[in-house]
Amino acid sequence: GAVVSQHPSRVICKSGTSVKIECRSLDFQATTMFWYRQFPKQSLMLMATSNEGSKATYEQGVEKDKFLINHASLTLSTLTVTSAHPEDSSFYICSAKDLLWSNYLRTDTQYFGPGTRLTVL
Amino acid sequence: AQKITQTQPGMFVQEKEAVTLDCTYDTSDPSYGLFWYKQPSSGEMIFLIYQGSYDQQNATEGRYSLNFQKARKSANLVISASQLGDSAMYFCAMREGGSGGSNYKLTFGKGTLLTVNP
Question: I need a surface site. Which of A35, A94, B63, B90 has the fewest CB within 10 A?
C-alpha cells in the first residue's frame, strides 16, 4: 500500500507554545489529506479535510484558528496547534488518498500516517 | 444515530481459530464504501479491506474477508487462522457517496479490541 509519514512521532511542549505536525505522502500524490484526533481508547474523530491549494474544511466544533492547516503541495500537509493547552494533548493522525490509484480501483482507500502523540505540559 | 456501530468492545480468540468482528452501518445513500482498519498498540492505522456498496461479491484479502449483508446493513470482518500478531484494535469505517465524488470523509466506529491467545 501507499506510504504516509508523519513528523514528529512524539512531541512534548509547554502550555502556550505552538506545535507543527507534518504529514507527507511518500510515493504518491494526494490532493486531499485528512487530520484526525484520537483520545485514549477512543475512536478517530475527523478534525479537518485538507485540500491542496485551497482552504481546509473543518468539522463542526473544531476551531480553525487553533488548528491551522496548510496543504502547500500534493505531498505535504501541516497541522499547527497554536497556543497549545493540556486539553490538546492527544494522538493526531493524518491520512491521504492516492488519487490515481483510487480512480483506477474506484475505491477511496485512505492511507494513514503513523501518528503524532502530543503532550502539553 | 450512530453511522457505524461496533457492538463488541473486546473479543478473545484462540490462535489458529477464526473470529468475526461485527459492524453495522446506517446510511440512506445508495453509494458508499466500507473499510476495516487495524490499529496495533503502536498507533498506526493499517488498511485491511474494502467493500463497495455495489460490489456483488464479498471482499477478500488473504486471511481477511468481509461478510457484506446489504439488506441487514452489516459488514462483518472475518479473520481466519488467527495469529498472535492479530491482537490489536479493529475499526470499521464508512464513506458515504460515490468513490468518484468529492466526499471522501470516513466515519469510524468505536472499535473492537481483539486479543489472540496462544
Answer: B63
